[in-house]
Amino acid sequence: MASPEEQEWRHSLSASERFDNIERIKASLQAAGPDVAATAPSESFLLESRAYEESHSRAQYDEICRVVGLAAPALVQPRTEGHEHGQPKVTIGTYKDCQLIAGGVTSEVYKSGDKALKVIVETRNIEPHHPQREAKILATLKRPCIPLLETFRDQEQRFVLVFPLMPMTLGDLLEKGPPPLPRIRRIFRDIFTALRDLHEAGIIHRDIKPSAILLESPDGPAYLSDFGTAWHPTMSAVAEPLNGKILDIGTSSYRAPECLFGDKSYGPAVDMWAAGSMLAEACRDPPKPLFESRQAHEDGNQLGLILSIFKTLGTPTAETWPEATHFKTPPFQMYQPIAGHTWEEILPDVQADFRELIASLVRFDSKRATAANALRHVCLEDVNVWE
């Protein structure tokens, strides 16, 4: 963990000063030629962020930024052998030198210059994944949801979605340790703004998790991505009617309890549970998921998550979760009563106002805070002021 002296110089460094350094590094990259210039925006953020994270003083940070600015073209000189990390570069549509950077059950993600290409590789029996619906939903959204730049069919007739390439995710950031509170404020204000806009349109994201939050830099701005399983009130109505939604949604530790107990009428509150769990993770030192869960393909993953939730928050009752009395599989009398813990015990080292917001989001009943509520909470105020 950074010393008080290190934290002090970082807090005294304004966002505009950091931006100026990023711009100087980017200008140096852009002057090096078209091959390097293509990735200048993302690479300049990465180089400045490394200087910010690794420097022990303001003087060291300034010197590293100066040296990096001079040496930047050499640091990111493109490879000529056509391989990176052992993966061959390919052409996808009109995009050349595409490098595989991630893969999943239904898609692969490639980077090409400053663009990210999501290539759909599986189209059979993939509900709730629906790439065309994802594209249509994205076309209706605005920042801080990730902008969709274009879609096309590649040489193999695979559906491709093109996005701006972002250098990191919230998951990447949390792997480095707990972010300072001003950074958490900025990032989560963007997240809750995106969720507010989604929910006002009747859309449910259904897969909120740290890897779905893309960052231009460690300080943001943040963009909500990964809309492959999003539910839309009209576009999804045939496959998933309002009261008959698919329950197999979300990712491991971030799945809301109503989905675990058969409530097919769930709504935007499932996103808020996940966002609250993610906020708790970001505030912990070291960052750690609030609830434990096995991977989706492992036996007992759902039961393990249920038990982790109950051991943390306590077993719900008809009084604490009245809505669950109408679920297909209500949780009452199925599990041995567990007392659970107070939020002061769960998050003892987290600032009180953040703990209060998390508690309002991670709760069983219908009083779970909305995204609009979260944006009005005191702990997300003054996001433009660095402490």
Describe this protein's structure.
Keywords: ATP-binding, Kinase, Nucleotide-binding, Transferase. This is cyclin-dependent kinase. Pfam families: Pkinase. The chain is an alpha+beta fold. The protein is 38% helix and 12% strand. It has 14 helices and 11 strands. The strands form 3 sheets. A 6-stranded antiparallel sheet has the order 3-4-5-6-8-7, with helices on one face. A 3-stranded antiparallel sheet has the order 9-10-11. Strands 1-2 form a two-stranded antiparallel sheet. Helix 4 (40-54) packs antiparallel against helix 5 and helix 10 packs antiparallel against helix 13.
Question: Layout of SSEs?
Answer:
Elements: H1 4-12, H2 15-30, H3 34-37, H4 40-54, H5 58-75, E1 83-84, E2 87-88, E3 90-92, E4 95-103, E5 107-112, E6 115-120, H6 131-139, E7 150-153, E8 159-164, E9 168-169, H7 170-175, H8 181-200, E10 213-215, E11 222-224, H9 257-260, H10 269-283, H11 301-313, H12 343-346, H13 352-361, H14 371-375
Antiparallel strand pairs: 1-2, 3-4, 4-5, 5-6, 6-8, 7-8, 9-10, 10-11
Helix pairs in contact: 2-4, 2-5, 4-5, 8-10, 10-13
GO molecular function, one term: cyclin-dependent protein serine/threonine kinase activity
Keywords: ATP-binding, Kinase, Nucleotide-binding, Transferase
Protein name: cyclin-dependent kinase
